[in-house]
């Protein structure tokens, strides 16, 4: 990615703002990803025919992976569908320059009127970590779209094989140096970046097999919500595909046992406690995150010849000394630290600070000690 020397921009406000004359309502987008044949098309077709009263634009791959220059876009409102084609330049929306995908969607909305929601299906081999930052944009850039979340479909029958298959190795990533460890497959990156994982084709496996799939997915990504379906039929759309609020809420941090499973040897989820912090400590946390995410340097750790870590997703919450609740969100090198955007903080939420990292080789480094050394103890109250 083309960041300047200072690293990627610190982003403000991941979306969901209230409407006002100054801040127009932004349109949420969900990225729908999943390995070949997992059931993405079945899911999106289900949405196109469901009654939901929303004007939803579904952007689907119609030409397969190599000829993916145009995208079919179907706008559905109350069971009525209109099909359009959108040009996304030379290549697929997933790898075209950052602004092209957003610009294509914005110009369509100018022609067709604003959508209530956008669903974007990626190709089966896409790495959602490359696509998400395209839609997770700084308010200052004036984007009219915001990323609501990433949904990954997996095929219950084949996912374990896909995760262990060296042929599915992600290409073009330095960190996929498999001399140093088990292979990182496309199936891994699609699960590690997901906010929701739908285990589809449950009709093809036994209860025992299904549990093994669930355990493996939880081990890779302890934050994602997991749903089990057959024929991609989800019981309701909100929380599954729509209105995920994955980047403006952190409820999943309170899940019991988060970050304790190590079944998958490639990608894991780790959880680190965060103290109540003064302004100085918050600056230290910010510097630590910049070092870890932008420079791939873990403070206090001497680089060795061993494998480097690679962080895909960051989510956290902490409380400032003055009582404010702060959220941390990140995808790959991009991160944001911001005040809890809801006016009424959830009274059920424990007031315990926590940082969760999902990524590769995290178990080989002491992230907890590095962060504790950088930030220090909670100040006296
Ligand atoms: N047995 C079974 N088959 C399913 C289920 N869901 C989808 N299928 C079938 O699986 C095949 C692949 O489904 P698609 O929806 O095309 O999957 P996809 O993820 O869009 O596949 P690609 O476009 O190749 O990436 C189709 O023949 C579907 O009818 C399910 O829950 N159970």
Keywords:
single chain, 381 residues, alpha/beta, Rossmann fold, Hypothetical Protein Yjia, Chain: A,domain 2, 2 domains, 8-stranded mixed beta sheet, 13 strands, 24% strand, disordered N terminus, binds guanosine-5'-triphosphate
Structure description:
The chain folds into two domains: 27-254, Rossmann fold; 267-375, CobW-like, C-terminal domain (Hypothetical Protein Yjia, Chain: A,domain 2), CATH 3.30.1220. It has eight helices and 13 strands. The protein has helices at residues 40-49, 98-112, 128-135, 159-164, 186-192, 207-220, 279-294, 367-375; strands at 27-34, 56-60, 70-77, 80-87, 117-121, 145-155, 196-200, 225-228, 267-274, 310-319, 325-331, 334-339, 353-360. Strand 10 (310-319) and strand 11 (325-331) form a beta hairpin. The strands form two sheets. Strands 4-3-2-5-1-6-7-8 form an eight-stranded mixed sheet, sandwiched between helices. A five-stranded antiparallel sheet has the order 9-13-10-11-12. The protein is globular, with a radius of gyration of 20 Å. The protein is an alpha/beta fold. Residues 34, 36-42, 124, 200-201, 203-204, 230-232 line the site of guanosine-5'-triphosphate.
